[in-house]
Amino acid sequence: MSDRPPFHLAFPVGDLEATRTFYVDLLGCREGRSAATWVDFELEGHQLSAHLVPDATGDAFRNPVDGHGVPIPHFGLVLPWERWEELGARLRAENVAFVIEPYVRFADQPGEQGTFFVRDPSGNALEFKSFRDPARIFATE
């Protein structure tokens, strides 16, 4: 864990077992504490709390960004480039459907980044992105 404080996010899911499979088996999260209606996951040092909500659906609005309809809301991680590529390849090999396929957004501009979006079994949108130069994450020029 880094010296930065971990982020916490609680979100609704419709099926805890399908959620466990997605977050542990596909994304490589470590499962933490749980009860009959929720389960915690460790995602790169951050705490995700999946709460069982009957009929939960992550149907999202779309916002146009760089020619793609980005699902809103969404959450995710900024990964080192090689890990971003590996995760995209692993999800593709497991036949996970991409909402937005892996590609380079804002090519040759400030903020150039690799990005892709997937949904968990409850429809929650996740974005995984990467910057070849991590110092450019907040670049405006």
Characteristic key phrases:
single chain, 141 residues, alpha+beta, four-stranded mixed sheet, 2 helices, 17% helix, 43% strand, globular
Task: Describe the overall structure.
This protein is of the alpha+beta class and 141 residues long. The protein contains 2 helices and 10 strands, in the order βαββββββαβββ. The strands form 3 sheets. The chain has a 4-stranded mixed β-sheet, covered by helices on one side. The radius of gyration is 15 Å and the shape is globular. The N and C termini lie far apart (31 Å). The mean pLDDT is 93.
Can you describe this structure in just a few lines?
The chain is α+β, with helices and mostly antiparallel strands and 141 residues long. It is 17% helix and 43% strand.
- Biggest sheet details: 4 strands, mixed
Overall pLDDT confidence = 93
Question: How large is the share of residues in beta strands?
Answer: 35-45%
Structural class: alpha+beta
Strand order of the largest sheet: 1-4-3-2
The count of helical stretches stands at 2
H/E element string? EHEEEEEEHEEE
Percent helix, as a range, is: 10-25%
Number of strands: 10
State the shape. globular
End-to-end gap: 31 Å
Enumerate the spans where pLDDT stays under 50 for 5 or more consecutive residues: none
Question: Cα-atom Rg, whole angstroms?
Answer: 15 Å
